[in-house]
Amino acid sequence: MAVRLKHLLAVPVPHYQLNYSQRPASFAKKSHSQSRLSASKMATSGIDRTAPSPTKIIDSHLHVWASPQEAADKYPYFPGQEPTLPGNVDFLLECMEEGGVDGALIVQPINHKFDHSLVTSVLKKYPTKFVGCCLANPAEDGSGVKLLEHLVLKDGYGAVRFNPYLWPSGQQMTNEVGKAIFSRAGELGVPVGFMCMKGLSLHVSEIEKLCTEFPSTVVLLDHLAFCRPPLNDDESLAFSELLKLSRFPQVYVKFSALFRVSRMPFPYQDLSHPLSQIVSSFGANRVMWGSDFPFVVPQCGYKGAKDAVTHIANQVPLLSSELEWIMGKTVMQLFQGQWLQS
User: Which residues cross the membrane (predicted)?
Assistant: First the structure.
C-alpha cells in the first residue's frame, strides 16, 4: 500500500503525483477510559478523509517541566536532570499565543524521567489544548507495558516515545521488552516516537524490524530522525535510509527542532532541499512541524520556529495545501477528535 516516490532522486516528484487519498491509518481518541482503535481497524472504518476540517496550527513536538518552585513543592526533577531553561506551562502558553499556535503534543521530558505527574497535570488542566506523549520505560522487569497502559487508559496520553539510550547497556529496542511496549502501543492505537539523537544509522534496522513485525503501530521520527543536510557519504546514507522508511505506510516524519539539524542560522534555509525530498517520499500528509520548545526559544524564539517553516516552504516551493498538512492537518489527522475546541 505504501507509495514509493523516487526517494533517492535529487529532483522531487511533482506535487500533482502525490496521492493524498492513500493516507495510512489514523487514530480516534474516544475517552480517557476507552482503548483507541488499532491502525488496521481505522484503515477500514470508513472515515471520511476528504471532509473539510478547521485549519489550525499544531506543534507536534515540545516539552514542559516544572518551574523551580513547582519542583520544590510537588514535581521534583530527576536527580542530575535539572533544567537550565525555563519550560513551565505558563511560559509555553505565552509563547503559543504570541506565535499563533493552537495546540501541541507534549513529549515527556527527561527532566522528570518516568515521573509523568507534571505533564499529566497540564493535560488535565488544558484537555483541548494538549495531547501527551509519554516516555517508554524499558526496564527489564517489563513494568513499562503497565506504565504505558496506565498513562494511555487512565491519564489519556496519546503517544509514547522510545529513547534508545534508556535501554539497558548492550540491548536494543527490538528486545523482548521493546517489542512488548511497541506492540501494545499499536493495540492501544498510540503512535511511537523515536529519538535517534546519535544518528539514524545506529537505529534504523531496529525501526525497520519493529515496523515489519508490528505494522499496526504508527511511528513518528523525531527531528527528521536527526538527519542533517548531507555533506559526506555517511550523512548521505543516513538521509537515504530516512527516505527509504517511507515504504512503511505507518511512518511519519517530524519536521521539528530545525535548529538541531540545520547548519545555518534562522530561517534554516539549507533544509529546503531535504524538506522537498521528504515531502516527495512521504507526502505532506505524513510530515508535521514541531518546535522543540523550550530549547528553541534561545535559538530563534518560539514564533521564529513556526515562521521558519514558511520561509523554507517558499524555497521548495510547497503548495499552500501541503504547508497546511505540515503545520497542523497531519497531526490532527493522527489524533482525531483533539484540538477541535481549542
Answer: none
Residue carrying C-alpha cell 499544531: 58
What is the extent of the structural domain holding 227? 54-336
Dist CA 136 CA 302 (whole Å): 27
Show Cβ contacts of residue 158 under 8 Å, excluding neighbours closer than 6 positions. 27, 29, 36, 105, 131, 132, 133, 152, 190, 191, 335, 338
**Residue 54 binned pLDDT confidence (cut-offs 50, 70, 90):** low
Query: What is the full DSSP assignment across 19-65?
Result: -GGG----EE---TTSPPPPHHHHHTS---TTS------EEEEE---
* Domain total of the chain: 1
225 grid coordinates: 530522525
The average pLDDT across 271-287 equals: 98
> What is the rounded distance in angstroms from the CA atom of residue 214 to the CA atom of residue 186?
8
Strand boundaries in 284-323, DSSP class E: 287-290
Contact 312, 277 (CB under 8 A): no
**CA distances in angstroms from 52 to 320, 324, 327, listed in the order given:** 15, 12, 16
In a domain, 33, yes or no: no
User: Exposed, middle or buried, 111 (CB in 10 Å: 0-12/13-18/19+)?
Assistant: buried
Rounded-to-integer distance, Cα 211 and Cα 225, Å:
15
Summarize pLDDT for 65-113 with one digit per residue, the tens.
Answer: 999 999 999 999 999 999 999 999 999 999 999 999 999 999 999 999 9
Is 22 inside a domain boundary? no
Yes or no: say if 300 and 308 are a contact pair by the CB < 8 Å rule: yes
Read off the C-alpha cell for 5: 516516490
Q: How far is CA 242 from CA 200, 248, 281, 285, in A?
A: 8, 11, 10, 16
Percent of the residues in the chain that have a pLDDT greater than 90, as a whole number: 83
The SS3 assignment for 289 reads strand
Rounded Cα distance between 228 and 245, Å, is 16
